[in-house]
Structures are given as C-alpha cells and as structure tokens.
C-alpha cells in the first residue's frame, strides 16, 4: 500500500506537435502528477530528505516537457514518468498531460492523455 502525492496544473510552454506551426509557435501544456510513495518514514522523521521533494520534481518535469520537441503527447508523457521514477521512493507514477490548444477543428475543452507506470514496467 502506498500513499499518493499529487501536483496538478504544472504549466509548461513547449513546441511539441505534428504540425509545423506547433513546432514553430509552441503552446501551453499542463501536467498533473500522482505519485505512489510511502510517506511513513518522512512523517516520523519530519525530514525532507526522507521523501520526494516536489519542488525539485516539478522543476525537473517542467524541464523535461520544455526540451527536445517531439510529435506525440504519448512521447512527452512517457518522458515525464521516466523523470518521476528516477527517485527510487516512487513506486508508481500517474501522469496526465493536457494539450488544451490542440489543433482540432471543433469546439472542445481539453485533450489529455493519462498514463500510469510502475517501477519495473516503465517501458512495457
């Protein structure tokens, strides 16, 4: 059994997409994270070193989203989970990547992809 740490609405500006104008102009992406971690040790010690530093994690996730443009949000979402699972205390990561300004010729409120990866099957 693990606890859940959530950080939602991480705003990033990046140049991902299959169309030239997406690569050229860029757009906003939003990231929601839910991480499975055991917080008992941190709670007992009251020591930040015993848990996931979500300030550092958010900076690392933002950097991962904003670098190296790719075509698909699937690729970006996997990149984010890889960053989350670098910390061995993270048992699993659920990442939702929102692309609210996706080039769709219809009225819609959001495009989002959610993936969940666990330690040991991050690329299965």
Written description of the protein model:
The protein is an alpha+beta fold. It contains four helices and four strands, in the order βαβαααββ. The protein has a four-stranded antiparallel sheet. Helix 3 (54-66) runs antiparallel to helix 4 (73-84). The two termini are 22 Å apart. The model has no long low-confidence stretch (mean pLDDT 95).
**How large is the count of helical segments?**
4
The shape is elongated
Multimerization state: single chain
Radius of gyration: 16 Å
- The secondary-structure class comes to alpha+beta
Widest beta sheet: strand line-up: 1-2-3-4
User: What amount of the residues lies in strands?
Assistant: 25-35%
**What is the share of helical residues?**
25-40%
Low-confidence stretches: none
Q: Describe the biggest sheet?
A: 4 strands, antiparallel
**Terminal Cα separation, in Å?**
22 Å
Q: Name the average pLDDT.
A: 95
DSSP strand tally? 4
Element-by-element helix/strand order: EHEHHHEE
């Amino acid at each position: 059994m693990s606890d859940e740490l959530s950080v939602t609405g991480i705003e990033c500006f990046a140049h991902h997409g299959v169309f030239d104008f997406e690569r050229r102009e860029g757009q906003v992406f939003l990231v929601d994270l839910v991480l499975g971690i055991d917080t008992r040790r941190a709670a007992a010690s009251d020591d930040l070193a015993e848990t996931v530093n979500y300030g550092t994690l958010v900076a690392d996730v933002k950097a991962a989203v904003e670098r190296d443009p790719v075509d698909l949000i699937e690729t970006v979402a996997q990149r984010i989970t890889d960053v989350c699972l670098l910390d061995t205390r993270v048992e699993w990561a659920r990442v939702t990547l929102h692309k609210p300004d996706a080039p769709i010729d219809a009225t819609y409120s959001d495009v989002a992809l959610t993936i969940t990866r666990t330690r040991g099957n991050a690329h299965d």
